[in-house]
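User: I'm new to structure prediction. If I give you an amino acid sequence, what do you actually give back? Let's try with this one:
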Amino acid sequence: MSELASAAVAGGLRLEEHEGGFVWHVFLATPKANVLDLAKIRALSAVFERARDAPHLRAVLLEGDGPHFSFGASVEEHLPPRCAEMLANFHAMLEGLLAAAVPCLAVVRGQCLGGALELASLCQRVFAAPGAMLGQPEIALGVFAPAASVALVERIGRGAAEDLLLSGRSLEAREAHALGLVDELADDPRAAALAYAKRHLLPRSASSLRQAVRAARAGFAERFERELRALELQYMDELMHTADALEGLHAFLDKRAPAWRDA
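Assistant: Good question. You get back a string of structure tokens that encode the predicted 3D arrangement of the chain. For your 263 residues, that looks like this:
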């Protein structure tokens, strides 16, 4: 097992190579929920860092092992004193995905929520099973989603993004497809993603694909990093000093309804 594969396993990922190493298939491998905890976030960062330096790599597939893509980031790690570390690492991982400049394809079944949708929405293509559910439920916990506040606006427009960010509702895959949050519906989204990679990415020059990814996302990548820094400060310096943010997180962990103070 390679050093990268060993680190991935230790972090709750499983890494497979296809097509002679031209395609990396990364599984979030702690079913059923595939929660994005700090260990998994760091393992994903290592994958994207290594992908950036893999000259022949043409695609990275991201998929949840089991019935769900992921329930999102660890709620326990959103609480003080781990919140700052978790948020900084999560955002660095997303920036690492953009910096790798390798086409990323998300394979979505079941639930794709919160931080998991932030991760998927930064992929070039999202392939989803018809029964998949996608949403940003952070507002129901009294918090907001910094990365989605930038990435969803870019992908589906401000109006649709604000609907998800303010309501916290989940979309069935067909509605997500109509909005452009999902690019292709397929009964077997893994097969559809692999077919896309084989047909459209493998015949191309890996170095030219990287240049094309960088060119297509140049302005967005710069804006994403700049705006994310400001939103991370808002999250830590303002939101996490409110009573309702802590109440919402604790209520979720206690499996009870929150008692908002509007303060």
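You can read the tokens as a compact description of the fold. Here is one thing that stands out. The chain has ten helices and nine strands.
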